[in-house]
Amino acid sequence: MDRLRSESRPRVAIGIVGPHDLVEQIMMIGADLPAAADWRLVGAPHAEEHETYDKFLRIADSIDAVLFTGPLQHDLARQAGELPVPATFVPMSGAGLYAGLLRGVLSHGVDPSRVSIDSLPAADVDEAYGEIGVSTAGVHLSEYDRPESARGFTAFHEQLYRQGETTAALTTIRSVANKLTAAGVPVLRLLPTSHTLRLALDTAALLGTGSRLEDAQIAIVVVELAASAKPSYSGPGNYWQQELKLSLHRSLLADARLMGATVVPRDENSYVVTTTVGALGQATDGFRVAPFMDRIHSDAGVAVEVGIGLGSTARDADANAVAAAEKARNAGAAAAYLVGGDGTVLSLPVRRRKRQESEPVVATKAAKLLDRLVDSLDDGDTLVVDAEIVADVLSVSPRSARRVLQSLAEEGLAWPMPPVKGTQAGRPRQPYRLVRS
């Protein structure tokens, strides 16, 4: 019965990104653990550190969390681009130093009191040497502090060895070990212990499970016409009201389809949108901006109030949405509030930039780029673009095109939409809707 329950429960997919040997070791350890039935490990080994992000992107759309084999890989990936799933890494500690020193003494005649060590924290080195009763007076250490520090590790070890101050180098980074070996410097690679790897796998599994559960929670959004936009009377004879309702419904559906949401009328002046926390979070930049309001203002020319409710059940989410809508209503037109499952209340700003009519219009660089895109692409429909389209229109590289879109979003001239997973492995396509004034 337990086995059947385990097989029916969806497994958390964990990506393992790093050097081939460590990825293989983690995959083997993970397969032998009792929790192996609860997760699916996806390996993405690389030959060189600069391949880290590309290898990660190839599996990003098929995993719930990613475990990098060390902080260097984690930081390189974060510098290269966004990490669309929760990420963690195998920590560096003095636990692997004992095995490394013992191996060096027994197999290579290394004097542990005269070595150079990189990456490890000084406190861990002092503790390890204190426990084996060896002085650190002749031990040289270069701690890890972002990828920039790792670039100097090879020269650090080689210089000390050439000067006769060390008998060997101890490094956690495979590329550094390879370069030192080629230079004739005795080197030992420090590897994490099996216990450290098991703990890292458990952490990644918890991150993936938490992300999946959170994304699956119910999110309900109440979108209501602001008081200034409501008709003076309601009824089938009010054709302006009927047209407004259709326009509002169309605007909501345009964004709701992208997040797999449903839209139903709530009353004459409001609608209810039902989706999941994960989908809504993508559409609102991690709940940092209000949903729907910008498109409705652009398409229908009216102000709305938005109330968002989150909860583990539809009932809880609906009650929170009603409470959030009430807060938005009391705050005035063009307001949006979120009430979380734990009662947290957030006020969400509208992404659209506001400008008083009396203010002079100054064409910023971002606005000029927007005009170029609109002129080139305007076909009467909603303008949705991605980096590939922008790169083609502006004759720039895809990386530059992504920066253009990010700057437009920061200026309120583009609205990031949920990423679109392609049929092939690689970076998910990030569409943006251009906001025309």
Characterise the protein shown here:
With 437 residues, the protein is of the alpha/beta class. The protein is built from 17 helices and 17 strands. The strands form 4 sheets. The chain has a 6-stranded mixed β-sheet. Strands 2-1-3-4 form a 4-stranded parallel β-sheet. Strand 5, helix 6 (122-132) and strand 6 form a beta-alpha-beta unit. Mean pLDDT is 82; it is low at 1-9 and 353-363.
| Strand line-up across the major sheet | 10-11-9-12-13-14
- Beta content comes to 15-25%
Q: What's the shape? A: elongated
The beta-strand count equals 17
CATH class of the largest domain: Alpha Beta
Instruction: Give helix % range.
Output: 40-55%
* Biggest sheet features: 6 strands, mixed
CATH topology of the largest domain: Alpha-Beta Plaits
The CATH H-level homologous superfamily of the largest domain: Reverse transcriptase/Diguanylate cyclase domain
Q: How does the helix and strand content classify structurally?
A: alpha/beta
Q: Tell me what the CATH architecture of the largest domain is.
A: 2-Layer Sandwich
Number of helices, counting only DSSP H or I runs of 4 residues or more = 17
